[in-house]
Predict the 3D structure of the following.
Amino acid sequence: MSFLKFFSGPTPEKLEKKGDALFKAGLWGQAKIEYECALVKAEKGSDLSPGWEAQLSKKIAETKEALAKAHQKTAEDLIEGGYYDDARPLISLALEITSDEARTRELSKLLEKLESIQQAEMEKDLANDYYGQAYEQTADKTYEVTLDEQYHALCGTLPPEIQETYLSYGEKFKIGYLALNAGDFETAATYLSRAMSEDSNPGSYIPLELATAYLHMGRPAEARRLLVAFLKHQPESLLAYQLLCDIYWEEKDFQRADALIDSVPEYLADSIDVRILRGETRYHAGEFDEAKALYQKFLDEQGWQEKIAIAL
């Protein structure tokens, strides 16, 4: 053996055999390195036959697939154990090294699952961190008011006919609705829009609450679009008429406000709230005497009504 050959390290054949031994031992990452070194060394020595090159390339591919499979299994175990941040890089690495289409699909689905879980965890954390736990002091102890308890308390202030509907909505709506009532309109809009995208019911009340958030954020055009569509399915919602009138008054579009009020269902047309909307429209239009006359006429017909008296 020559002096140079002695220091040139193991031959490609020996590297391949070492890779085989490592592969059998389940050390696929190290086996891959040995096979790749064998291939490079054989290419440099100009003694690499087409058959041997194909053999080494096949072994490299097999180690990659074995390694990808191992990473996938480890990632699945980590996700099962709740170690989501540790699982993500393993899935990404497995996707990089695999060339198997079926495994690529499995890994992509696993990544989607992970992202879905992490999104749900993030929303849960937001609910806990943002709202925290409200504490109330009683005579004998302090107790925590949970997110659900806060939400149920708010829903208890709603008209009985829609309480059940609001209580049926999911976590995203709860977070958005609580944020809306807490004055955090950005958070409210984010979560209410997510809740709306997941709700297929055209008669849902979610657009009404999202429109309310948009109005507080200075986004009347988006609010108007939601409210107009909402009233097609919920024509008895007096709050929606009020919000739309607020928009039209701000835009000085009193003709459209009048048309909206005229579209109220007949059985609501003479209600106090609708009468007030008519009077307020005249007031915002600068027609003060007409507004006063409308209110006075209602009092003359219906007797004393505190809401009308206040408006008057």
Notes: Residues 1-7, 133-145 have pLDDT under 50 and may be disordered.
